[in-house]
């Protein structure tokens, strides 16, 4: 998968939820911290979004906001008429957030100017249609649409910030050489990558690549490679019954012993115990995606 898909997949925890909400004139809604991400799209009226110590942001129909880190906030109806908005929430594992998510601001505002983000607008329209009409199969369609919406919102944020001066993941993904090396690591984490081979893959010398990658991503290439290998292994432990030797091989470790040591050093517990804990957690979770 690509880097953004991998980042979301690595952090996913539980099923998302979505609803259509309404606020009476001057109505207020306080929303606490969420271990994940939230979004809102105004469909009618005007809504102010406020955060502690920050100026309010006024949203008109079609405007969207994303809270990538689930920060606490307040929604206020800013008109004398009833306001309506689409809202969604995603449970994400914040214990080991992907650096791409860490690089996103606490609040992303996407104003609905003509012609901007057509794919996002199409996804919003589909989600509203599913919530408005009680159609068969919505329990399968809604979670899939929520995944699409999250990707489209983050894509829109990345495109807004791409091309700017500076460092960070938004810039790194827009840099041809660095993004090529990141894709290689994500697609083939088990390959015997070195700084030199990654640099050659990116079309740069070893030294130039190491400097460029570290400056943009915030970590040296092999540090990120190790992080991603162990994140990949953790995901396999959560979602498969593959033997530890297979997990070790697929995540780039030459032996189960080397993998076991690296995993315990990173996570603080053994790989076997980690798998057991997540199985116990899954057996206690249930639920379905919510509608209205």
Secondary structure layout:
Layout: H1 3-11, E1 17-23, E2 28-31, E3 36-44, E4 47-50, E5 57-59, E6 64-67, E7 73-77, E8 83-91, H2 99-102, E9 108-110, H3 118-132, H4 138-161, H5 169-174, H6 176-187, H7 195-202, H8 206-217, H9 221-239, H10 244-250, H11 256-267, H12 271-283
Antiparallel strand pairs: 1-8, 2-7, 3-6, 3-8, 4-5, 4-7, 6-9
Helix pairs in contact: 3-4, 6-7, 7-8, 10-11
Report on this structure:
There is one protein chain. This protein has three domains: 3-161, Sandwich (Jelly Rolls); 162-218, Arc Repressor Mutant, subunit A (Orthogonal Bundle), CATH 1.10.10; 220-284, Arc Repressor Mutant, subunit A, CATH 1.10.10. The protein is built from twelve helices and nine strands. The protein has helices at residues 3-11, 99-102, 118-132, 138-161, 169-174, 176-187, 195-202, 206-217, 221-239, 244-250, 256-267, 271-283; strands at residues 17-23, 28-31, 36-44, 47-50, 57-59, 64-67, 73-77, 83-91, 108-110. Strands 1-8-3-6-9 form a five-stranded antiparallel sheet, with helices on one face. A four-stranded antiparallel sheet has the order 2-7-4-5, with no helix packed on it. A hairpin with a 6-residue loop joins strand 4 and strand 5 (57-59). The protein is globular. The two termini are 32 Å apart.
């Amino acid at each position: 998968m690509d880097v953004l898909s991998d980042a979301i997949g690595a952090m996913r925890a539980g099923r998302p939820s979505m609803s259509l909400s309404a606020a009476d004139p001057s109505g207020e809604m306080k929303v606490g911290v969420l271990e994940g991400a939230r979004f809102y799209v105004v469909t009618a009226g005007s809504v102010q979004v406020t955060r502690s110590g920050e100026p309010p942001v006024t949203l008109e129909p079609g405007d969207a906001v994303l809270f990538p880190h689930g920060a606490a906030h307040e929604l206020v109806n800013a008109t004398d008429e009833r306001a309506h908005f689409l809202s969604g929430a995603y449970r994400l594992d914040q214990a080991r957030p992907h650096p791409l998510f860490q690089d996103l601001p606490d609040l992303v505002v996407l104003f609905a100017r003509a012609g901007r983000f057509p794919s996002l607008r199409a996804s919003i329209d589909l989600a509203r249609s599913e919530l408005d009409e009680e159609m068969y199969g919505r329990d399968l369609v809604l979670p899939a649409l929520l995944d699409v919406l999250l990707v489209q919102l983050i894509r829109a944020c990345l495109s807004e910030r791409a091309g700017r001066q500076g460092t960070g993941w938004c810039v790194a993904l827009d840099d041809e050489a660095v993004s090529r090396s990141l894709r290689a690591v994500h697609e083939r984490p088990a390959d015997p990558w070195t700084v030199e081979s990654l640099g050659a893959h990116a079309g740069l010398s070893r030294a130039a690549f190491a400097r460029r990658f570290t400056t943009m991503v915030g970590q040296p290439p092999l540090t990120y490679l190790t992080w991603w290998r162990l994140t990949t292994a953790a995901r396999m432990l959560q979602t498969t019954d593959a033997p530890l030797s297979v997990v070790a091989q697929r995540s780039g470790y030459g032996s189960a012993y080397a993998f076991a040591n690296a995993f315990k050093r990173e996570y603080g517990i053994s790989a076997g115990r980690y798998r057991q804990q997540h199985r116990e957690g899954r057996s206690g979770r249930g639920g379905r995606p919510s509608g209205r």
